[in-house]
């Protein structure tokens, strides 16, 4: 994996710490973070033109995450702030590491989501098994259909990105 500018990596890391704290505490991500990401991207176009540019490839992941996030929002799986933030967050990730960052994000999402699902099952296994036995699958949504704070998952993936770039 190519190296990322350490200052930009650190700046994004600090932003993710703040966003994760707010998302965990209030279950909400302000639109200001998305606006900040767009502003930072525009600044980075001028500060690091060899790394950041405006072309179709620049917007593939951000638009993809916006589309998937909107779909997940409609299905009540992901919050609107999460999808907007993730979309604009990807503007700050250089093209050279977007594939790896996405891979780490998928691993983090599956790991955290899986652990939360196992925790919910252990905590509520009697009720879950009863609803399965009664074939009342709609009631199972009470145990597995809840949203979780996604910004901390992005933070975990970002730490793994940094680890893979800077620690050998």
Mind explaining what this structure looks like?
This protein is mainly alpha-helical and 168 residues long. The protein has one domain. It is 75% helix and 0% strand.
Helix content: over 70%
Q: How large a portion of the residues is in β-strands, by DSSP E?
A: under 5%
* Stretches with pLDDT under 50, minimum 5 residues: none
* Class inferred from helices and paired strands: mainly alpha
Q: What count of domains describes the coordinates?
A: 1
- Element-level helix/strand string: HHHHHHH
Gap between N and C termini: 11 Å
Main pleated sheet: none
Q: What is the strand tally?
A: 0
User: Using only CA atoms, what is the Rg?
Assistant: 18 Å
Which geometry do the CA atoms define? elongated
Q: For the residues shown, what is the average pLDDT?
A: 91
Tally of helical segments: 7
Keywords:
mainly alpha, 168 residues, 7 helices, elongated
SSE arrangement:
Layout: H1 6-26, H2 31-47, H3 60-74, H4 80-89, H5 95-133, H6 137-144, H7 151-166
Helix pairs in contact: 1-7, 2-4, 3-4, 5-6, 5-7
Brief synopsis:
By secondary structure, the chain is an all-alpha fold. It has one domain. It contains 7 helices and no strands.
